[in-house]
Design goal:
heterodimer, A: 6 helices, 0% strand, B: mainly alpha, 8 helices
């Protein structure tokens, strides 16, 4: 039996979902960026990176969960378009890499004092990965071509 | 008067070429969103501290003063990208109800700053010395979160209103 996805027929529902998506990723990516800039020596200098990470880790995870679940619902409105779209594919690769990096190498650099050079490199990689996710997301609507 | 200024603005070479470029426009949009993430997280971090929900081991004064300039820079980045997006479609945005609401919310943000600047933000050391976070600081933080969340949502709404025919795009 074919059931119409209610989100595909409701522009308001879709728009509200996008607001959740943006708020979620802004919180998650922004909080991570706050930590990255701390590793680069900008921002909350009186706090240690570990202190900042502990203060915001649940807020970051919460934002990420909201962004991923709203994203899955957005994906469900037009899966055929998304999974073939280059913008989307690049976004997914960057997202998986960013999440893996965040909870492995990035976490280690934050909680164990690394050499400043190494910590800065980790911060730059993290920033580039997360910003790539945002760019990928925007370019889904721009690059209409993809796999066939 | 305002409208004719906006039509003049959007037809200046940099803005009309931004409007018609396939890739620069989305790049500015993505930079706008990246700056919003950064700026938003600093707003949320400050507000969470003022509400007593995060960073308990640091004083309010410490968080506010350290993030003051980074927040300003983040706002300038997001604002510059936002202005570029606006200026390239200024006439269309003039009619856009979500854009007008967004500008109204920015006015409210300015009023928020004027109302709470003296009692909360200008002298955070005094606020921090008080045994409990004063109700006024909590109110300022809660209103700030609501206002910025509202700006984020109506900002997304702008893209949902189709431009009307008969725009003076050249």
């Amino acid at each position: 039996m074919w059931i119409e996805n209610p989100l595909s027929t409701s522009p308001t529902g879709f728009a509200v979902l996008e607001c959740f998506h943006i708020a979620g990723f802004a919180l998650a990516i922004g909080m991570t960026a706050l930590l990255d800039f701390r590793l680069l020596g900008i921002g909350l200098q009186n706090q240690s990176p570990a202190q900042i990470a502990r203060a915001f880790e649940w807020w970051t995870l919460g934002g990420l969960v909201v962004a991923v679940f709203s994203g899955l619902l957005i994906f469900s409105t037009d899966p055929d378009m998304y999974y073939l779209n280059w913008g989307f594919l690049i976004k997914m690769v960057c997202l998986v890499l960013a999440i893996l990096f965040n909870y492995t190498i990035h976490k280690r650099a934050v909680f164990r004092p690394w050499a400043p050079g190494a910590a800065r490199l980790v911060a730059c990689i993290s920033l580039i990965l997360w910003v790539s996710v945002i760019f990928g997301g925007i370019f889904i609507a721009v690059i209409r071509t993809g796999l066939t | 008067m305002l409208l004719s200024f906006l039509i003049w603005l959007e037809n200046l070479t940099p803005f009309s070429s931004l409007r018609s470029s396939a890739y620069v426009y989305p790049i500015v949009l993505a930079l706008h969103l990246s700056a919003i993430s950064l700026f938003g997280a600093m707003i949320v971090a400050t507000d969470l501290r003022m509400l007593g929900w995060a960073l308990f081991d640091s004083s309010i004064a410490d968080v506010i003063t350290q993030l003051r300039w980074p927040k300003r820079i983040g706002f300038i980045l997001a604002g510059t990208c936002g202005f570029l997006l606006f200026a390239s479609k200024a006439e269309e945005y003039y009619y856009n109800a979500f854009f007008r609401t967004k500008m109204l919310l920015f006015v409210l943000v300015a009023i928020h700053a004027l109302v709470f600047r003296r009692s909360v933000y200008a002298d955070p050391i005094k606020v921090a010395r008080l045994p409990l976070v004063p109700r006024r600081a909590r109110l300022a933080a809660a209103l700030s979160l609501l206002l910025w969340l509202g700006i984020l949502c109506v900002g997304r709404g702008i893209g949902y209103v189709a431009g009307r025919p008969g725009m003076h795009f050249r």
